[in-house]
Structure formats: C-alpha cells, structure tokens
Design brief:
Order of helices and strands: HHHEEEEEH
Number of domains: 1
Structural class: alpha+beta
Shape: globular
Radius of gyration: 13 Å
Largest sheet: 5 strands, antiparallel
CATH architecture: Alpha-Beta Complex
C-alpha cells in the first residue's frame, strides 16, 4: 500500500495514454526511480513526470518511439556515467534514451538517480 501513496494520479494518466511498448518502458523506469529512494517525490510538471528531492532530480519524457530518463543536472553526473549513456548538449540537462525494454539497466540508473539526489544536497 505504501507505494501507491507515492505515485501521482496525473502521472498514471500520462502513462495510460502512451503506446503500449513505450508504456511498458515508462512503468519500469518509474518503478526504478521510486525504488531508488523513498525521499523522491513524484509530480506532474511541464507535461511529464518529474521526481524531486531537495530540488528537481530527474524526469521521464515519453514520445511515440522512445522514453527519455532525464537529469536536470546531468552535466554533473558525467563522471558517474561509466556506460556513457547520457546524451544531450544543453547547459546542464542530459538524458538517457530508451527505445526497448532491453535498454533498461536498473543498477546503472539507480546509481545515477542517487548521485543526482546527492548533487541536490550540496
């Protein structure tokens, strides 16, 4: 039951409207994020799921063909990104693009999410 209180109804709706394969990836990522820390808060902002802990930590951005697991301070995570998964050339934001379930690397993502939370503690 505890898990349910951490999910946001608007995020549920967002996921329900995605294509089936993309939905599957998004649900798996959401679970990884929420399991990374009990301190992360799920919110629906800027038309997508966002996860905060002492500030924005990460987000999920789905399209018809892929899902991005994004990090607001992704540029500061690059040394932790030992698998070179982070993409993007913005000032600070970086994302990992997933097109299939096989792209999910639970341990790697958990490490990055926890590292992103640590950045917000500084």
């Amino acid at each position: 039951m505890g898990e349910e209180t951490r999910t946001n109804k608007e995020v549920d709706q967002y996921i329900e409207n995605l294509p089936e394969d993309i939905q599957e990836i998004t649900i798996a990522l959401r679970e990884i994020i929420l399991n990374s820390s009990p301190k992360l808060i799920e919110e629906y902002k800027w038309s997508m799921p966002n996860y905060s802990y002492m500030g924005l930590t990460c987000y999920l951005q789905a399209s018809k063909k892929h899902v991005n697991l994004g990090f607001q301070k992704g540029n500061e995570l690059e040394e932790k990104d030992t698998h070179n998964l982070l993409q993007g050339s913005g000032k600070t934001m970086r994302h990992i693009r997933l097109t299939k379930m096989e792209d999910i690397k639970q341990e790697v993502f958990t490490t990055l999410i926890q590292a992103a939370m640590e950045l917000n503690e500084k």
